[in-house]
From TrEMBL:
Pfam families, alphabetized: RibD_C
Name by which UniProt lists this protein: Deaminase
Record-linked InterPro entries: DHFR-like_dom_sf, RibDG_C, Riboflavin_Biosynth_HTPR
One annotated GO molecular function: 5-amino-6-(5-phosphoribosylamino)uracil reductase activity
Annotated organism of origin: Embleya scabrispora
Lineage of origin: Bacteria, Bacillati, Actinomycetota, Actinomycetes, Kitasatosporales
Bilayer-crossing regions: none
């Protein structure tokens, strides 16, 4: 069975964006970019990847599919990138976008849990990247097999939490991590 990984960037106080959805306060330096290129090149937007040294023959080690919420998807769409991760199968969970702006982007208007379970049950393939946002992650908590959290050395006090909703405690085991030169830590957790 394929696993669902919530791979996300957050502040020390657990926010993935400010109240308005902005995230330009994250100190994404050369160390973070180098780590992403080396370890998670498939998480770089298709239009930026070549400028960061990720070529068409780069092996994607972790994911072949991305699932994201509407608020995570829309900034790229507003900038003219209707399929920001064109190198992955792309799914957007939304009740407000009724027609996909790109034929390769599949909209999930109904139950995201059912669709994620269907994707996880597919034979073979790599994992599924849950790219955000917080409400979607909270609704999918029972399906998340792994967390990869890039914690940036910044506090913002309030904003969009890494995960929100009503759910009970879920135990995860720390399975690895590293601290990059600029102070960003990358930690991996597996569902216990």
């Amino acid at each position: 069975m394929r696993k669902l990984t919530y791979f996300i960037g957050a502040t020390i106080d657990g926010f993935i964006a400010d109240r308005d959805g902005g995230y330009d306060f994250f100190p994404v330096g050369e160390d973070v970019v180098a780590h992403l290129v080396a370890e998670y090149p498939e998480t770089l937007p298709t239009h930026l990847a070549p400028h960061m040294g990720v070529g068409p023959d780069t092996e994607f080690r972790h994911f072949d599919t991305v699932v994201m919420g509407r608020a995570t998807y829309e900034p790229g769409m507003r900038e003219g990138f209707a399929n920001p991760y064109g190198h992955l199968r792309s799914y957007v969970v939304t009740e407000t976008i009724t027609e996909s702006p790109d034929p390769a982007v599949t909209l999930i208007a109904g139950d995201p849990i059912a669709k994620v379970r269907e994707l996880k049950a597919e034979p073979g393939g790599k994992g599924i990247w849950l790219a955000g946002g917080g409400r979607l992650a909270g609704s999918l908590i029972d399906e998340i097999d792994e967390l990869v959290i890039k914690t940036y050395p910044v506090l913002i006090g309030s904003g969009i939490p890494m995960m929100s909703g009503v759910f009970g405690a879920h135990a995860f085991t720390h399975t690895g991590g590293t601290v990059l030169a600029g102070g960003t830590s990358v930690a991996t957790y597996r569902r216990t």
